[in-house]
């Protein structure tokens, strides 16, 4: 299946007027698949457990940056900003959330109004693109993204921009879904509506690792965390409005080796 001609327009709709975060598949103003702990079988998952999975994915990404108190981090594609607020509050650092959607940033300011006040300037938001970051060179200690890179058409540009704004010794981390190297990523479009439309782009994870290396990063690491994502997510989907839709095929794609969920990290050398 061929993608629709203007995939970016679809993404802008999803994260603007449509408000993807309002769907029950997501909860607590987060928009990610979650990093899940062990769940007892044969019972429904609570909304509190779903929200906890969202937050834990942010913690996994943040911890990989090895943040120190007072560090300045940049989140690419911050959406509603609750993940940025969590990282800023739990790690005693400054987090700036970047998003291309003015509508999402308006929502982020409203949702996080109390956190912005309580954190005393340690949480801020800025409009811009991950492929053209509106920050000075060597201006942040860490750059991260949570389930955003699948919406970017030029990941090499993301890698170059992240390297540019990072100080020497700064770290990059991203969590999202890719194709395992060697998998038939094209087959995913027949199973997942967002991939068929072009809203999500499934690339081999090794291609993005190579983009990071080409941009000047070192110590590039690719870690599969799918065991903490797919089966638990599918259980949650069965409790939502997507329980009889194509969304159940995420697990199928994982089990057939077509996709996986990864934590990708890298270091800008001193």
Explain this structure:
InterPro entries: Erg6_SMT_methyltransf, Methyltransf_11, SAM-dependent_MTases_sf. Residues 74-173 form the Methyltransferase type domain. The structure is a single chain. This protein has 270 residues and is of the alpha/beta class. It has a single domain, classed as Vaccinia Virus protein VP39 (Rossmann fold, 3-Layer(aba) Sandwich), CATH 3.40.50. 34% of the residues lie in helices and 19% in strands. The protein contains 10 helices and 7 strands. The chain has helices at residues 7-14, 47-64, 82-91, 102-111, 113-118, 155-165, 193-196, 205-215, 230-237, 249-255; strands spanning 72-76, 94-99, 123-127, 140-146, 166-178, 218-224, 260-267. A 7-stranded mixed sheet has the order 3-2-1-4-5-7-6, with helices on both faces. Helix 3 links the parallel strand 1 (72-76) and strand 2. Helix 2 packs across helix 3 and helix 6 packs parallel to helix 8 (205-215). The protein is globular, with a radius of gyration of 18 Å. The model is unreliable at 1-5 (pLDDT under 50).
Radius of gyration: 18 Å
Terminal CA distance: 45 Å
Mean pLDDT: 93
Strand content: 15-25%
What do we call the CATH homologous superfamily? Vaccinia Virus protein VP39
- Principal-axis shape: globular
Structural class: alpha/beta
**Major β-sheet strand ordering:** 3-2-1-4-5-7-6
Number of strands: 7
Question: How much helix, percentage-wise, in residues?
Answer: 25-40%
With helices defined by DSSP (H or I, 4 residues minimum), what is the helix count? 10
